[in-house]
Design goal:
formyl-coa transferase, domain 3; 2 domains; six-stranded parallel beta sheet; Rossmann fold; 18 helices; 395 residues; alpha/beta; 13 strands
């Protein structure tokens, strides 16, 4: 792991994705993440049986590297006392319970702050502690739908709504939660005090609207699906090529549009009043796109990418996942890493945060359920064997 957050200890009560992705970010940055799991199966996604590696969930493996696993049934008084003892020597308690669950378990911020005034609690939930929807279950699809993005994702108005290809409702909240923890750690370094962080999936999803929301606030524009195109800038989109694959361009800027006309051998478009300015291109979008669509069918995807890049036009292929994972930039940036797990190396997506103080990165494999029980209870808390048995006893 990196050394950036070395010395920071996080008690991670979260599971599935919206929580664990955030704590994995913090673990990749060097924090010690102790994944506190129910002994009866642990994290729910451990039981995702669709894709397995040696009888382990690939879903779980993707979200839980650089963590330790401790099993505690917090309904057990002795287990809850052990959790309180860990709070005394930790920096962050992180969960993705529904609002009110932590209080029912006796591990809410008000309780833990009395045990350790420097503790930071971060809670990720679907709608947030103050929302009228706080008691509703929340999963990624619901958040994408309610946040509005599904209404304008897709090829054309009138078609069914389309979900983003990966769970941005979950991932966005996890990213904001990691940022909240980092901000709270900085604040604590100044004030000496911990605090409660409340991150909602729906809030996070809406924050990504940026200019789409601003267009609505200022002009009342409700967006409709336009495929890979841009709402106001032209030409920005994917074009089908001779081999049936797609190339993307972002050539709305005057410089890049002029370069595009040269690369495709149609410099006359630059002088055409219908396309000479961004405003004109937006007004005559359909005619310009018809011309470009026909032109891009003359060469293969990779031929176009080579020509466009050489001509200083922002362009790239629409990669399938296997192509993206083998992309030279991805490999150069060490975004595919290997982690030793159960006697073999498995590949994982790497850490996108690169910092000069990191040195060389290494990653520990996602833990098996309860793998670090003895280490944490005996070494960190100096518990006797008898007390460990009491803590781990089933309810």
């Amino acid at each position: 792991m990196a050394d950036i957050l070395k010395g920071i200890r996080i008690l991670d009560l979260s599971q599935v994705m919206a929580g664990p992705f955030g704590t994995m970010i913090l673990g990749d940055l060097g924090a010690e993440v102790i994944k506190v799991e129910n002994p009866d199966g642990g994290d729910l996604c451990r039981n995702n049986r669709q894709y397995l590696h040696k009888d382990e969930s690939a879903y779980f493996l993707s979200l839980n590297r650089n963590k330790k696993s401790l099993t505690l049934d917090l309904r057990n008084e002795k287990a809850r006392e052990a959790f309180y003892d860990l709070v005394k020597i930790s920096d962050v308690v992180y969960d993705n319970f529904r609002p009110g669950t932590a209080k029912n378990l006796g591990i809410d911020y008000d309780t833990l702050n009395k045990i350790n005034p420097r503790i930071i609690c971060c809670s990720v939930s679907g709608f947030g502690a103050e929302s009228p929807y706080k008691d509703r279950p929340a999963l990624d699809l619901l958040i994408q739908a309610m946040g509005g993005v599904m209404s304008f994702t897709g090829e054309a108005a009138g078609r069914p709504p389309v979900r983003l290809g990966y769970p941005m409702g979950d991932l966005g909240a996890a990213m904001y939660a990691a940022m909240a923890v980092l901000a709270a750690l900085v604040h604590r370094s100044i004030s000496g005090k911990g605090q409660q962080c409340d991150v909602a999936m729906l809030d996070s999803q809406l924050s990504f609207m940026t200019y789409r929301a601003q267009y609505f606030f200022l002009e009342g524009i409700v967006p409709e699906p336009i495929g890979t195109a841009h709402a106001t800038s032209v030409p920005i989109q994917a074009f089908r090529t001779a081999d049936g694959l797609y190339v993307t361009i972002e050539a709305s800027h005057q410089k890049f549009f002029r370069n595009l006309t040269k690369v495709i051998g149609m410099s006359e478009l630059w002088a055409d009043k219908r396309f000479a300015t961004l405003a004109a291109r937006a007004l005559n979008r359909e005619e310009l796109l018809r011309i470009l669509e026909e032109k891009f069918l003359e060469r293969t995807r990779d031929e176009w990418v080579e020509l466009l890049v050489a001509g200083d036009v922002p362009a790239g292929p629409v990669n399938k996942l296997d192509e993206a994972l083998a992309d030279p930039s991805i490999l150069a940036r060490k975004m595919v890493v290997e982690v030793e797990h159960k006697g073999e190396n498995i590949k994982m997506v790497g850490n996108p945060i690169k910092m000069s103080a990191m040195g060389s990165e290494s990653f520990t494999a996602p833990p098996t359920l309860g793998e670090h029980n003895a280490q944490i209870l005996a070494e960190y808390l100096n518990y006797s064997e008898e007390r460990i048995r009491e803590v781990l006893a089933p309810v």
